[in-house]
């Protein structure tokens, strides 16, 4: 390379950070695409739309929700991992994207640790162990006694292999020394319907879908998988209180963007995310779904997600669960 071309290359390299900074300072100048790796209508979709509406005015731009379900969230996650890091593509990421799939699939088209920018947490909601109202066990201890007396004869439902509900039960089985038979369904709705109908005895159910069913007696909750009791169900004991230690089970959600997103955009998005979590509309919607707000820094969200990946990796390996 001659001196002229060398100087031109050096000038371009030196100017790149300033161009990136200028871009970040003027952001956002167009609509933002928010990818939800699930179909419309579920808890993840509803929360994303609620948050997007709360953030829209402050950001001064439209936020368009794009539902990209499929392959246990891998389709939507791959699209975001390979998108341009300009702040105009973000996504809702949960346990599947950040904690489960790297252990459930032999090969992923992205790395949860290296191919994303962690923006911040949004919510956490515990899972409750529920049974059909006619099931003979009225307490968790009665349920455990029944399961141990009938190994393999108590069936449990889940929305599918590798779902938070499935893995929560695998942890429960490991902690309690019980043998329950898994009946996977294609989605939460048919799984819950069969528990209510008595075709299946029990399941772990997230409060986003299960709270109204518990409150109206369509299913009976035996324990909640949170670290403390939840305000919507103050009478419901935690698994730890009921004698099952080290068994906290919950679903969590946060925001990701493509890797190498400029720091000023990350900081702005994180600030807007935390501000939205404190708005009355979002607070009420989360309370209605039994969710707990999960504000914080990008570093805190990343640290929590990686800790969850380690914790659930051990459960998945022990249970021998694979999705490919």
TrEMBL record:
Signal peptide: 1-24
Domain of life: Bacteria
Keyword Signal: yes
Pfam families given in the database record: TctC (PF03401)
Keywords: Signal
Keyword Cytoplasm: no
Recorded family membership: Belongs to the UPF0065 (bug) family.
Annotated protein name in UniProt: Tripartite tricarboxylate transporter substrate binding protein
């Amino acid at each position: 390379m001659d001196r002229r071309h060398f100087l031109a290359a050096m000038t371009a390299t030196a100017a790149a950070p300033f161009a990136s900074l200028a871009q970040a300072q003027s952001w956002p100048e167009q609509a933002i695409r928010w990818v939800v790796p699930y179909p419309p209508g579920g808890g993840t979709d509803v929360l994303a739309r609620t948050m997007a509406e709360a953030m829209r005015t402050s950001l001064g731009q439209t936020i368009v929700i794009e539902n990209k379900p499929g392959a246990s969230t891998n389709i939507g996650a791959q699209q975001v991992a390979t998108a341009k890091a300009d702040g105009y593509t973000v996504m809702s990421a949960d346990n599947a994207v950040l904690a489960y799939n790297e252990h459930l699939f032999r090969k992923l088209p992205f790395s949860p640790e290296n191919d994303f920018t962690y923006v911040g947490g949004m919510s956490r909601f515990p899972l409750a162990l529920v049974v059909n109202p006619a099931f003979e066990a009225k307490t968790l201890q009665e349920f455990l006694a029944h399961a141990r007396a009938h190994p393999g004869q108590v069936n449990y439902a889940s929305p599918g292999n590798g779902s938070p509900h499935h893995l929560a039960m695998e942890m429960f089985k490991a902690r309690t020394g019980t043998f329950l038979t898994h009946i996977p369904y294609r989605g939460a709705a048919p799984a819950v319907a069969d528990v209510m109908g008595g075709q299946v005895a029990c399941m772990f159910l997230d409060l986003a879908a299960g709270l109204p069913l518990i409150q109206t007696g369509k299913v009976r909750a035996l324990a909640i998988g949170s670290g403390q009791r939840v305000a919507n169900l103050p009478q419901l004991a935690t698994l730890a209180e009921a004698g099952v230690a080290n068994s906290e089970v919950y679903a969590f959600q946060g925001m990701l963007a493509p890797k190498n997103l400029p720091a000023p955009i990350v900081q702005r998005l994180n600030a807007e995310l935390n501000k939205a979590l404190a708005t009355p509309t979002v607070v009420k919607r989360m309370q209605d779904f039994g969710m707990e707000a999960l504000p914080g820094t990008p570093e805190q969200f990343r640290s929590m997600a990686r800790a969850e990946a380690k914790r659930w990796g051990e459960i998945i390996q022990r249970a021998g669960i694979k999705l490919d």
